[in-house]
Amino acid sequence: MTTAACALMAGPALAQGTAAAAAGQSGGLEEIVVTAQKREQNLQDVPVAVTALTADTLSNRGINDVVDITRAVPSLTITQTQSPNNSNIILRGIGTNAFSTGVESSVAVVVDDVSLLQQSQAFSGLTDIARVEVLRGPQGTLFGKSASAGVISITSQAPTRDMSAGLNAVATSDEEYRVDGYVSGSVNERIGVRFNAFYSTREGYIRNLATGNKLGGDESYGFRFRGDLEPTDRLTINLIASYSNSSSTPTRTWRYADPSARIFGGGGNPGVLVAPALVGQNVGPENFTVRQNVEGSVDSKQSMLVGKVTLDLGAASLMSITSHQDWKQAAGLDDGDYTDLAVVGRAEGMTSTSPFHARQFAQELRLVSTDKGPFSYLLGLYYANGRTDRYFDRLAVGPLRASWDSEAGTKTYAAFTQLSYDLTSTTHVDAGLRWNREKIHVRFANLLPPATNACYATCIGNAADNRATYKIALRQDIGRDAMLYASYATGYKGQGYDVSTGFTAARAANPVKPEYSRAYEIGLKSEFFDRHLQLNVTGFWTDYKNFQAQSAVLVDGTPQFQLSNVGKLRSKGVEVELSAKPAEGLRIDASAAYTDAKIRDFPNANCYVGQTVAQGCVDINPGPAVTMAQENLAGQRLANAPKFKYTVSANYTAPLSGGLDAFVQADWTHQSRVNFDLLGNPATVQQGHGILNGSIGIEESDSKAFRVSLFVNNLLDKAYASLIIQAQGEQQGLATQQFLPRNARRYGGIRARFRY
Questions:
Q1: pLDDT tens profile 59-87
Q2: Where in or outside the cell (predicted)?
Q3: Which of 153, 275, 420, 621 would disulfide-bridge 628, Cβ 3.0–4.6 Å?
C-alpha cells in the first residue's frame, strides 16, 4: 500500500474535504486522514490500531461527549460515576484503578495536540469537532507517559477558506435543549478565523422523593475561537482559545438492600437501618428514584490556550506547540449516605465537599520531514509543568470526620523521535524512541488532629525518575490496497502519590513505582472492490508490570489500604473493523472486540465487603485489636472489561424529489457481562446487554445544507448501570448502589442541522 500522507501545512478540514470528494466521485468509502503518528497520513497506511470518527459520523450518530464514543469503539469502555474525577476511561480492559490527583491516567486524552492534565477534564462535551481518533495500546513513544493503555485524540475544526456558518439544534422528550453553531471564513488571503459556541440544558431523570426535585440534570455552555495566520508562504500560525462551563446534579440510586442492612456502624455502634429511607423506591436495576436530604452538585470551568507555529523549511517543517490549560471543579455538599436519615451524628447525614484546581503549561517542538524519498523522520522535544490542588472536607461526628488540603505537581522533560525507512517499494520499517524525565512533588496538610502517622502539620514529598520507551514496526504492502504490520512497543505510567484521606509521612517518602507495559501487535488493513469494502483486523498481547492499584499493606505495623505496586496484568485479544457500501445509498459499519484482560499476580489485594474465608479471604493480621484481610486476585478479570463487545451501524439514503434525500439509520451496541469491582464482588456485576438507537429524516442532497431527523435512543428501553458499588458505609455486603446514565432509559427527540 503506497503512503498517501498529506502535506503538514494543510488543515485537517481541507484534507478531509478533498478525500471525501474523491470518494464521492467513485462511490466508495472516503479516505480518512489521521495524526496517530504526529503527521497527517491516510488511516489505512498507519501501523497503529486506531479508530477514526469524522465530523459527519459524530453528528449522524449523535455522539456528543467522550462517553458516547464507546458506541463506536468496542475496545473502549468508560466507568461513568456521579463525579468526573472518579470516572475511568478504559482501553482493552486497562484503566486507572486508583483515583488521586497524584496518579496519572492510563489513557491519555489529547485535544488539539495538547494532553489534558487530569482525565476528568475530558468529560466536558464535544462540539465543532473535525475528528476523534482512538489509539489502542501503549503509545508512550510519541504521546508520553500517560498513554500506557492508549490515547483519545480530539481535533477541532479549522477555519474554512470561504465564508460559512452552521447551526445545530436538539430537543428531546426528556427535556434536553441544545444549540451550537459556528461562523468561519477568511478575513483576507492570509488570515482565517472560526468561532464556535454552544449552550445545553437538560432536566434531571432521577426523582428525589424527599424533595420532589429531579436529579441528574445538567447545564453547560462554552465557546472556541481559532485564528489561522499565514504571514509568509512558509510560516503558519494557529491560535486556539476555548472555554466551557458546566453544572450538574448527579447522584447514585440503591440497587439492592437486605432488610437488615445498616450503614456507618462499628466500634460498638450498630449503625442506622437503611430500610426507612427506601420506602417508595423501586430498589433494583431500574431504580430511578432516591430519597436524599442533601442534593449535591458538580460545577466545572475549563479554559485552554494553544498556539501552534509551523515553519516550512523545504525538506522538513518545524512546529512549535505552546499551551496553557486551567480546570476548576467545585462540588457542592454531597450526600455521602444517599438517604434522608440522620447518620454519623448529624441530621443531614454524612456530607462532603471536594473542590479541584488543575493547571498546566506545556511546550512541544517537532521537526517533521516531508515524505519525499525512502527515509522520513520526526524529532521532538517536550516540556510540561502541571499542578493540581484539592481540598476535601467530610462532615461527620467521630472517626469519619476528615478535612485536608493538598497539592500534587509534576514536571516532565522528554525527547522523542520516530524514523521510517522503505526497505523496498513494498516493505517499510518504523522505529521510535522517547526519553522521559519526570519530577513529582506532593504537599498534604491534615486540618484535623491526626491519627497515628497522619500529617497534622504538612507532609512534603519529592521524587524523580528517568525512563526510555520505544517502538518498532514492520509494514508489508500486499498489492495496492492491503497492508500487514507487526509491532512491538513499550509503555510507561509514571510514579505517583496516593493523595487521599489518611495521607502519612511514609506515603510522602515512598511514592508508588512507575507502571510498565510491553505490547505485541499484528494487524491487517485492507480495501476491496474499488474502496467499497474496508476490513481491518488487529491481534494484540500486552503485559503490564508494577500495576498501580489499591491494596492492603502494613505500614509501621499498622494495616492500611493504600495505593501500591501490587501485581502483573495481561490483556490480549482480537479487534475487527469493517466498513462497506454494498449497494447504492447503503453504508454498513461494524466492529467487534474480544478482550481477555486478567490479573496475573495480585497477592495482597483487599477483600471485598462480606467476603468469607471460603471465598478466598485471608486474615493477615489476626488479633483482638486490629484485623486486616486480603485475597489473591490472580486470574481475576479486570474491572469493567467486557470479554466481548460489538457495534453495528447501518445507514440507508434514498433520493426524493426537490433535491432532497431521505435516510434511516440504526445503531446497535452489545457487550458481555462486567464486574465493576476489581476485587471480584459478585454483587457488583452488570449482566450483558444491548442498546439500539435509531433515526429517520431528510437532508439536502448535494451540499447537505440542512438535515432534520427524528431519533430514539435506547429504543428497547433497556436499563443498565455504568457503575455498581458496595453501598457507602455498609460493611456486611448487604447493599449496593449504582449510577444509571441518562441513556439507561428510552428517550426520543429531533435534531436539526443547517449549514451555509
A1: 989 999 999 999 999 999 998 887 777 78
A2: Cell outer membrane
A3: 621
Q: Is-contact 339 292, C-beta < 8 A?
A: yes
Structural contact between residues 667 and 695, judged by C-beta atoms closer than 8 angstroms? no
**Alpha-carbon distance 466 to 415, whole Å?**
12
**30: nearest Cα among 10, 50, 53, 49:** 53
Say which range, 251-260, 449-458, 731-740, has the weakest mean pLDDT.
449-458
pTM for this prediction:
0.93
DSSP string, 224-284: EEEEEEEEETTEEEEEEEEEEEEEE----EEEEE-TT-EES-BTTB--EESGGGGTT---S
What is the model's pLDDT at position 17?
36
CA distances from 491 to 34, 99, 515, 720 (A): 21, 20, 8, 33
Contacts 24+ apart (CB under 8 A), 682-688: 683/256, 683/610, 683/724, 683/726, 683/733, 683/736, 684/724, 684/725, 684/726, 684/736, 685/724, 686/720, 686/721, 686/724, 688/642
Q: Contact, 193 vs 226, CB < 8 A?
A: yes
- Domain 12-755: give its CATH superfamily: TonB-dependent receptor, beta-barrel domain (2.40.170.20)
Domain boundaries, given as residue ranges, for the chain: 12-755
Q: Nearest-CA neighbor of 296 among 265, 274, 329, 263?
A: 329
- For residue 353, give the C-alpha cell: 465537599
Q: How many Cβ atoms sit within 10 Å of the Cβ of residue 335?
A: 23
Phi first, then psi: give them for residue 18, nearest 5 degrees. -65, -45
CB-based contacts of 529: which residues, under 8 Å, 6+ apart?
A: none
Backbone angles phi, psi at 679, to 5 degrees: -80, -5
Residue 39 is given by DSSP the state S
Using alpha carbons, list the distances in angstroms from residue 76 to 87, 366, 645, 719: 13, 29, 9, 20
Backbone dihedral angles phi then psi of residue 284, each to the nearest 5 degrees: 155, -170
Give the per-residue pLDDT at 453: 53
Strand pairing class (218-232; 214-215): unpaired
Give the ranges where 30-117 is alpha helix by DSSP (H).
Answer: 55-60
Question: The C-alpha cell of 182 is what?
Answer: 459556528
Cell of 167: 447551526
Buried b (16+ CB within 10 A) or exposed e, 444-479: bbbeeeeeebbbeeebebebebebebbbbbbbebee
Q: Could you give the CA distance from residue 749 to residue 90 in angstroms, rounded to a whole number?
A: 30
